[in-house]
Amino acid sequence: MRRTISIKLLLLVCFYFSLGINGLISKQNEPIPVVMFHGMGDTAYGSIIVIKKVLESEIPNIYVTSIRNGNNVEEDFISGFIGNLNDQVSSACEIIRNDPKLQSGYNSIGFSQGGQILRAIAQRCPNPPMRNLISLGGQHQGVYGLPHCFGDTNQTNYLCNLVRQYIRLGAYTPAIQNMVVQAEFWHDPLKEKEYQANSIFLADINNERQPRNQSYKDNLLQLKNLVLVKFTKETIVEPKESEWFEFYKPGQANEIVPLRQSPIYTEDWLGLKQLDQSGRLKLLAIDGDHLRFNMTWFRAQIVKKFLL
Ligand SMILES: *[C@@H]1O[C@H](CO)[C@@H](O)[C@H](O)[C@H]1NC(C)=O
Ligand SMILES: *[C@@H]1O[C@H](CO)[C@@H](O)[C@H](O)[C@H]1NC(C)=O
Ligand SMILES: *[C@@H]1O[C@H](CO)[C@@H](O)[C@H](O)[C@H]1NC(C)=O
């Protein structure tokens, strides 16, 4: 009698134990979800939907979500031009924090300016943790020039011209900083001090100001990989080297300082040198114009290496 009870008990324990193990195993086998962030002239489920579909076909059961700014697609579109990036980062952090499917961490893919916005999310909102950050043509040292804007519709061109006019009025004036997205990562090498003092977004996340924010560095160093993709035939991002965190030498707009000779790297106030020396800073180049990559490349160089 006692024996049968104990056998039943043992079976029961085994049953729950195996459930637990299975639960653990299936949890481990669940692919890491992906969060995407769109760029200027696009929306959360606009042209980048192609990438969501590729990920879903390459990685069974993957959860892929895309951050939408505002309450609808129109607000989301306009948010690429007009708005305060610090507010956009806070609300994206909240969306990520409240998404039950992202609680064990996620990989992220930023398209164009979505790249630097996701980096701000990694630096400011470490929970849940971002694992790999893939920046496709992100402007990590900002832009100095808006030769033309991505997405060639009348609506895009209208907003793009508006942005140019505001920047011409004075990129670093507080009202424009709070309102014009591209002004918030406008980096004028002839006004380096003004940029450092007044840029509400880029100079802050690049930790340009004293005292340096140690948590920005600590949080960026939590990344498994920081993958920066540069498009070598850029006609949209000026300078294209910004996509690898490089920028003009202060005081002129011709000579680019190589990343490993730049103060942000040598003095390492953001963790780039440490990421590089531990093999986690991946600098990739594509021989094409802004965001012009094919799916063969994307599958081989991004999905297989960082997202599987
Ligand atoms: C560093 O950044 C975080 C996130 O933005 C902020 O909460 C914190 O106050 C900053 N710390 C310092 C010393 O500025
Ligand atoms: C775009 O603007 C051009 C020139 O102003 C105009 O001729 C054209 O009809 C517009 N297209 C749309 C789709 O509104
Ligand atoms: C895809 O892109 C890669 C990298 O830019 C390039 O080397 C390759 O030739 C392209 N393949 C096709 C089929 O276009």
TrEMBL record:
One GO-annotated biological process of the protein: receptor-mediated endocytosis
Annotated EC: 3.1.2.22
One CC-aspect GO term: lysosome
Pfam family, one: Palm_thioest
Signal peptide span: 1-20
SUPFAM superfamilies: alpha/beta-Hydrolases (SSF53474)
Molecular functions (GO terms): palmitoyl-(protein) hydrolase activity
Catalytic reaction equation(s): S-hexadecanoyl-L-cysteinyl-[protein] + H2O = L-cysteinyl-[protein] + hexadecanoate + H(+)
Coiled-coil intervals: none
Superkingdom per UniProt: Eukaryota
Keywords, ordered alphabetically: Disulfide bond, Glycoprotein, Hydrolase, Signal
Family that this chain belongs to: Belongs to the palmitoyl-protein thioesterase family.
Protein name (database record): Palmitoyl-protein thioesterase 1
